[in-house]
Write a structure and sequence with these properties.
The chain is mainly α and about 150 residues long. It is about 50% helix and about 5% strand.
Length: about 150
């Protein structure tokens, strides 16, 4: 590496450092603005709340300091439940006539409209082969998918 290349790479690293610091600072400022907004909204809510009048003879006590309301994080949305083996088999048998004469696992998934569990789909395809509804056209290996043929095609 020549001195010139070294200096160039060093300058580039320094530029990347400055860019990273700027990005971090802007993220910090955005978080502070969001926090300020939440604080102002809570102050508005407290100001809009009706205040109960105290009797004149009571000793003046400082009002309790409001505690910021904790915002519960929203639970992560749960993925939709996968259909069971019987549902997959029913859907696959219904979709079989819509498949072309030669098809792969990917074609089956497209016809079903969802991706069932891999083992479930494999077992159902093997059952269809055993019963003669479909045949294996070409055995797949590695990244090459198995090609199935409909028995009526």
């Amino acid at each position: 590496m020549m001195r010139e290349q070294y200096e160039h790479r060093k300058r580039r690293l320094e530029e990347q450092l400055r860019d990273g610091v700027r990005l971090l600072e802007s993220a910090y400022q955005a978080q502070v603005r969001a926090l300020d907004l939440v604080w102002m909204l809570q102050a508005e809510e407290l100001a809009a709340a009706p205040v109960a009048e105290e009797p004149a003879l009571s000793s003046p006590e400082p009002p309790p300091t409001p505690t910021p309301a904790k915002q519960e994080p929203l639970p992560a949305p749960s993925p939709p439940p996968r259909p069971g083996a019987f549902d997959v088999e029913r859907d696959l048998r219904a979709a079989l006539p819509r498949l072309s004469g030669h098809f792969t696992r990917g074609d089956v998934i497209a016809a079903l409209g969802y991706e069932p569990e891999r083992g479930t789909l494999y077992r159902i395809l093997q059952e269809l082969v055993r019963e003669g509804s479909i045949r294996v056209g070409a055995v797949g290996s590695g990244r090459k998918a198995t090609v199935y043929r409909r028995a009526d095609a």
